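Backbone-to-sequence.
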């Protein structure tokens, strides 16, 4: 059976003044795939992801989600259609518990309003616990977000994003700033979400060990352009990648 295309961009371009951050990027992510975007600092990876979810408005080009043209669509509408970029730590509520952080996302998804009344503390507690279990954090239900390790904060961000029920999950450097072992543990969890729960995943990553261990397809960006998109085995043989990442060794 032919694989469905989850995300497709056509000639995506973005300029910030004179800086062409993203140039003519035509990227395809198949449904069920775990795809990495790699490239040097400033290559345009984050901008590209932000253009896909319209967090940053594009200069030109098109974005399709499961064949539907979502170019220019409001981010919350894109999210409703199943495409979500992971919250960043700065968007966690540090004084609230993990449970409450997830609760906010669930309330948002359900479109529930409490007016001026406070949200009951245990509202949707079981559902919050279930969401936290998906990222291996059920034991931290009542822990305050500010007291979590950096790695657990990253897991909590992912739990919040998953609570919005995406089909496609975009992760910008999910292992940045965490120790190597914890980085692998986060990626094991992400791979389980991909393999067992069927999420399509597009992630940006600098650690080449992670990239080559956890990707079905690797897309390489440089100076705003997509220079290659292929299987890890073939990307390993790519001249640009050899020069930039693998020490130029043949
Ligand atoms: N809001 C902005 N205003 C002006 N220039 C920007 C803005 N965002 C990004 N840029 C520029 O666009 C280019 C691409 O940046 P981007 O953050 O997408 O790179 P990146 O590949 O994610 O890099 P890194 O690996 O360091 O995260 C850079 O030259 C950056 O300085
Ligand atoms: Mg970036």
């Amino acid at each position: 059976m032919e694989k469905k295309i989850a995300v497709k961009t056509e000639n995506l371009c973005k300029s910030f003044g004179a800086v062409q951050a993203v140039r003519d990027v035509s990227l395809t992510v198949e449904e069920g795939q775990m795809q990495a975007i790699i490239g040097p600092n400033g290559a345009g990876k984050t901008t590209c992801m932000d253009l896909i979810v319209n967090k940053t408005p594009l200069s030109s080009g098109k974005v399709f989600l499961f064949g539907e043209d979502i170019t220019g669509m409001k981010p919350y509408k894109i999210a409703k259609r199943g495409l979500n970029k992971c919250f960043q730590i700065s968007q966690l509520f540090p004084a609230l518990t993990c449970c409450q952080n997830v609760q906010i996302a669930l309330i948002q998804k359900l479109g529930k309003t409490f007016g001026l009344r406070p949200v009951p503390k245990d509202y949707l507690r079981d559902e919050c616990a279930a969401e936290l279990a998906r990222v291996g954090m059920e034991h931290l239900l009542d822990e305050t977000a500010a007291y979590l390790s950096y790695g657990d904060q990253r897991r909590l961000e992912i739990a919040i994003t998953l609570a919005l029920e995406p089909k496609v999950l975009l992760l910008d450097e999910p292992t940045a700033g965490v120790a190597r072992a914890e980085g692998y543990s986060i990626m094991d969890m992400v791979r389980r979400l991909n393999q067992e729960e069927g999420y399509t995943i597009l992630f940006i990553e600098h650690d080449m060990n992670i990239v080559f261990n956890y990707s079905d397809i690797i897309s390489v960006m440089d100076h705003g352009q997509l220079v290659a998109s292929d299987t890890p085995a073939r990307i390993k043989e790519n001249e640009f990648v050899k020069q930039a990442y693998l020490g130029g060794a043949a």
